[in-house]
């Protein structure tokens, strides 16, 4: 921009409208944020396992957890790792059957 160009109120208004439109478009593309911590019932539903199998995963150290006020919480990333590990379905089933 050289010294002889002027910015008018209309230029600013147009820029504002374009900027707002771009921000709205970006907000629509934004992915919902996944929950970082999950409760036991959510984990059981996600993995399709019983309360006993979930307990076995905790006891055997396959799934880390935090206990706050009597409620167990699990990190989403730990669940993802468990689901993504090789043969995870067989490992979970085996843990649930006492082996």
From TrEMBL:
InterPro entries: DNA-bd_dom_put_sf, HTH_17. It comes from Hufsiella arboris. GO terms for molecular function: DNA binding. Residues 37-83 form the Helix-turn-helix domain. Keywords: DNA-binding. The keyword DNA-binding applies. The keyword DNA-binding applies. This is DNA-binding protein. It holds the Pfam family HTH_17. PANTHER family: HELIX-TURN-HELIX DOMAIN-CONTAINING PROTEIN, PTHR34585.
